[in-house]
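Dear colleague,

Following up on Tuesday's group meeting, I ran the structure prediction for the two-component complex that the binding team flagged. I've pasted the input sequences exactly as they went in, so you can double-check that nothing got truncated or mislabelled along the way. The structure tokens for the whole assembly follow below. Feel free to forward this to whoever is handling the docking comparison.

Inputs:
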Amino acid sequence: MLRFIFKRILEAIPVLLIVATVTFFLLHRMPGGPFDTEKATTPEIKKQIEAYYGLDKPVTQQYFDYMKRLVLHGDLGPSQKYFGWSVNELLAGSLPVSMELGLEGLCFALFFGLTAGVIASLRKNTFGDYIPMSFATLGICIPSFVTGPLLIIVFGILLGWFNTSGWFFPRDRVLPAMTLGLYYMAYISRLTRGGMLEILNQDFIRTARAKGASEWRVVWRHSLRGGLLSVVSFLGPAISGIVTGSLVVETIFDIPGAARFFIGAAFNRDGPMLMGTTLVYAVLVVVMNLLADIVQVWMNPRLRFDS
Amino acid sequence: MSAEFPIVTQHAGEIEPGHSLWQDAWHRLRQNKLAVIGGVFVAILSLICLLAIVIAPGSYAKTNLALGATAPSSAHWLGTDILGRDMLSRILFGGCISLSVGLAATLVSVIIGVLYGAISGYLGGRVDVILMRIVDIIYSLPFVIFVILILVVFGKHIVLLFMAIGAVSWLDMARIVRGQVMSLKRQEFVEAAVALGLRKRQIILRHMIPNVLGIVAIYATLIVPSVMLLEAFLSFLGLGVQAPMSSWGTLINDGRKTMEEYPWLLIYPSLFFSLTLFSLNFLGDGLRDALDVRASKD
């Protein structure tokens, strides 16, 4: 397995290099720049700003400068939108918050999604199936800009259990994590139900039941491993999305997360920030897909590490 | 004829007529009431939206500034928006865009995603490495930049919206199918197929893909809501439907801004969106059951 992981890390290098290079050159084809404002700047000032960010050099020169700083020092450069801040500083301050929120939302989604999916698969095409599945579908249908305020009204204002916004105490995590998790819960529960049904009518399950194994044991020991294959495949890329933050959730609950950088970088034409967020996201994609592949092999003895 | 094929004629009376996978699936699907209701609902809704030009009570574009936003009434069943446009008409016309975006993404993910994932998972080795790293790269590249550049180079065109959505809608499906196929290919029936001398192409098409169709059906219906919302985001960027044209995604986004003053501007488009998703999910689950080749025939 160590060999497999090592190989995948080697494979990640060209992936990141391609992503960085393509993004860098695309960025330079973009119309407009971060310093185009409605108020016209004098050419002299514009020149000075461009010299400060190294934008006056040829593009290939800029590219090699950027890659050198990135590889040697892990330096993502200065933000062109938030003057005086480096991209490293901005992301270091906000990404952990988004990641924590994302992981908590994911735990919520996994717990309720898996439970709903397993229950539904055991009670296929009865009300015990329709009710949890319909509830899960609501998670996709109702957008988070509705569920967020709704949860705030019910649990924050009427019941007074939680603060309506902010990110200070452990219980401040509950409502945002729920809002974020509801959407993923729907995906997880439906994929779980489908995967479980595929396993539950196989011969070895019939054998297990014939031996007198309890329903709990049938699910836990015999079915989940095979039934959750598609959930794991789905989670690889989904986690990368969930931990880089949701702009809607972070705005509603006033959370100092990274979503505004991930979403805003392209709109602000903030080149270094866009490069930074893209690279962080690419690393997450690579790592999470690697994790997903490892978990899949661990869960399914039929699989082996291809090498 | 009979002289040439003696064996066939000899047993013709005894052999039960064969059913293809699709015949079996169709038969089983029809028995599932909820799936049929879901399918019929989506079909009728699509038809109504397609015929919106004929049956919509008004125009999606005609404004009536004197009227403004009004609650549902006998003249305007679902009310009017801030510019006095009839909401029912806007929802029906918008449905055309949203449903076709959903259909396009489903087709792309089912055709490209399933083939790509099955090939990658079955062949394994170096092919798998390259195909999956390409998927990683496409996941990682900043989508918004591409969209903006497409707009700059090609201008606004509705076809480009479909291409942008198609470009990203197959990735998850490819990964899911790959995972399933990797597990399937270790099973005995594949060994048997290899021993019988079937070629890789035949094994992928006849033995791998039919066995993953259940999960494909589920994920194909799950992808619809996400691309309908993606369409709204692309429209916001300028690629996609432009005012006064509408889609469910843009109507929901617009409704959100005024959800406290004029809740019906959010509620009714969301209701159409949700009903469609519910129907699709039941249809997807029914399709999964119907396509489950291992299920006992009953």
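The CA atoms of residues 1 and 305 of chain A lie 7 Å apart.

Cheers,
M.
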